């Protein structure tokens, strides 16, 4: 009897370890899935859309209503960066009349970001986003890679339907388009790029989750 117990002792021990590891792996995957699902579904609990306010160095302001129901992770990312004062002191480094103004790059030349990227919430990247790139819309800039957006964003000064479905639009200017138009009129020389004094968010009392990042 003792011989039989000794014979089966190690195989049983190894099986127990394997089952334990599989169980831990499943729990981890479930945890990840749950976190992703919670982050995607949080707009169901948002009673009022957040408002972002961009205050320029000349104290002109641009108020933007953000749409978490359209691009939840993009909105969460923008709010997170703004709350961390990431945008304060950055410029609109790219200004194209009759098209858009682009900012949010810590390098000031179109090559910088927050050190991570997020998934592109637009239709050609398998996300439902029907928001059109019309005058006043705010959307995320990116490289050719669909999941390469980070901190850079652009505000439309004219309609650009060719961008629809390929960039993550996530809000719209509700006040201050005159300030946007003023930026378009400014010099676009690097030394004179219009500077954002601050970007603040009124979350209407909702505690937004941290954005999901692309590893």
UniProtKB/TrEMBL annotation:
One of its GO terms (molecular function) is peptidyl-prolyl cis-trans isomerase activity. PROSITE patterns: CSA_PPIASE_1 (PS00170), CSA_PPIASE_2 (PS50072), PROKAR_LIPOPROTEIN (PS51257). Its EC number is 5.2.1.8. InterPro entries: Cyclophilin-like_dom_sf, Cyclophilin-type_PPIase_CS, Cyclophilin-type_PPIase_dom, Cyclophilin_A-like. Gene3D superfamilies: Cyclophilin-like (2.40.100.10). The keyword Isomerase applies. Keywords: Isomerase, Rotamase. It catalyses: [protein]-peptidylproline (omega=180) = [protein]-peptidylproline (omega=0). The keyword ATP-binding does not apply. Residues 61-206 form the PPIase cyclophilin-type domain. One of its GO terms (biological process) is protein folding. Belongs to the cyclophilin-type PPIase family. PPIases accelerate the folding of proteins. It catalyzes the cis-trans isomerization of proline imidic peptide bonds in oligopeptides. This is Peptidyl-prolyl cis-trans isomerase. It comes from Virgibacillus massiliensis. The gene is ppiB_2.
